[in-house]
Amino acid sequence: MNLDTRRITSLIFWILFGVLLDATSSHIILSQESNVKLLNETFAVICRDSAGRKVEWSGPKGVLGVMTRPKVENKMYGTTLIFYGTKAEDTGTYTCNSGSEKKHYKLVVEAPISFPDSPEEQTAREGNDAVVRCEVRGGQATWSTLDDEELAEPKFKVVADGLIIKNVTREDSKTYVCKAFQSSTGNIFDRKIRLIVQHKPVLVPHYATDKIVYGYINGYVNLTCEVYAEPAPRFQWYLVIRKEKKKISGEISASTHASVLQLYVTKRSFGDYVCVAKNNLGMLEKIFTLDEGSQPDPPKGFELVEAFGDTLVLEIIGPDLEEDRDENMDPRWYGVEYKNSQSEEDWSLQEFNITDENTYSLSGLEPLTDYEVRCATKNLAGFSDFTNSSIFKTVSSAQDCTYSILMLLLPLLCQMFTGN
Question: Does the keyword Translocase apply (predicted)?
């Protein structure tokens, strides 16, 4: 082999060695290796070879290019895999291949958490099994109540589209929380669902079926009929005459679950009255017996003990009680009516249980305001006549605050001056 041949062979060797050396030192670079995306997002993943070699992308369905989904574009900074408006079917593993090396990019496309067919207010019937519906898309569902009560089997059971409640009772009427957790994103959302248990009318707790009510002639008496029922009941009042019920009117107020019948009492008013509460699930009768009582005497008087910014403290002197009286008709409460003396507003009323201290705090007032005040006694049959009114004035809030501070300091001042 002559000299030129040896030189050419040596040159080829070093060229091939350089190519091999360059190939072993080059590597693929990905801009990101994995992602969790929500639906309808647009983003790109860049792949390039450090030595500038050509790379190509492939996906779960084969080689990707400019006309595929996702599409591939060649840019100065690398071969770019572009996702426009991500869809659930874009989830998968994508490969960037340089011929001698491969790198993988993993994509998970999650639907945002949603609650289709999950009304925020649902109904169930007492005594039946019920399903509180909550369909979760994009996450796993767990259940609790608004007060974090335990929902244990066999009473409760979580199923794919909701929460089963066995043998529903009125106590199951509450707000349940359907909570969805998406492990891939860490997102947590919840849906609060109020369950309304439908049932026939029932008495409120500690409310007797039969009730004795007292009234006095030429006075007024209110018969209050209150029940629990769902749906809300319809009320009707009856007067019992010779064991026959006769419809009567005179309802002065009603709410969804209560009715008040006001009667002007005459000699013919005494007897039995029936309140009937009814809905589509059943009915309830409550009997009121109106007996004759006596109107109490009014207080002998009252006076202001102390005034604050929002309170007037009153001493009320009750009426004298006769020895041969019916003690069942003794006064049990005081009623205090009050109004701003400078306005045309109606009287407001606060009631107090009669106590041995005989001082009563009329609260919720405005500072530096003159109030016209009057008092009455109340027994089981109703109110007495009201006393003549008096005018009392609240003090300013600043005076109230100063008084409170002085009362706090008074024990300390006493110690300083007495030396104790």
Answer: no
